[in-house]
Amino acid sequence: MTLQAIHPETLKAAVLSALGDKAKSIQIALGEVTLDVAPADYLEAMTRLRQAPGCAFEQLIDLCGVDFSTHGDGTYEGPRFAVVLHLLSVSLNQRLRVRVFCADDDQPQVDSVNPLWNSANWYEREAFDLYGIVFDGHEDLRRILTDYGFIGHPFRKDFPISGHVEMRYDAELKRVVYQPVSIEPREITPRVIREAHYGGI
């Protein structure tokens, strides 16, 4: 027997019933429900979404950081950093996208949901590593993809494309050494965009 997917309007009503005023906004687009919550209400809202009978989101299947600093070609004026989660209820066959914006652009921080879903562990470490978002309450928040001594957060829109430091193995010293980046910047825009009549167009 297969479960039939719940209609987005039904899911929206269930989420609003579970969260009440903890739901900052909720919308349906392309058949998917997206919920926005305030950072102060984030952990409480996630707890309710996991436990409420009409929601029952037993699984967190994705979590990532987002940098909105260049969103809308620079016309966007809201908070810079957000955390986006995708939740799954296996028992009710429904999915929900949740977004929470960090209150402070200079020191982005939200609560960790790792105590609720242990699958958040590496996702939160990745968002910390690549965006510098701190997850309060995470027991082992350290870099996961970049090197131990890496400086900066490479998925931020203001991070230089070539980075700051490169590493290589020095055969004479018999160890890895760090040095300033020696890569020359190059044109990476495809010719079809760079040249007005490329290919006879």
SS element count, helices: 4
**CATH C-level name:** Alpha Beta
Biggest pleated sheet: 5 strands, mixed
Structural class designation:
alpha/beta
Task: Kindly report the average pLDDT value.
Answer: 91
Which second-level CATH architecture applies? Answer: 2-Layer Sandwich
Shape: globular
CATH topology: Beta Polymerase, domain 2
Corresponding CATH superfamily: NADH:ubiquinone oxidoreductase Nqo5 subunit
> How far apart are the first and last residues' alpha carbons, in Å?
54 Å
- Placed side by side, the strands forming the largest sheet appear as 1-2-5-4-3
The number of domains? 1
Secondary-structure element series: HEEHEEEEHEEEH
Radius of gyration: 21 Å
Per DSSP E runs of 2 or more residues, the count of β-strands stands at 9
Query: How much beta, percentage-wise?
Result: 25-35%
Low-confidence stretches: none
Helix content: 10-25%
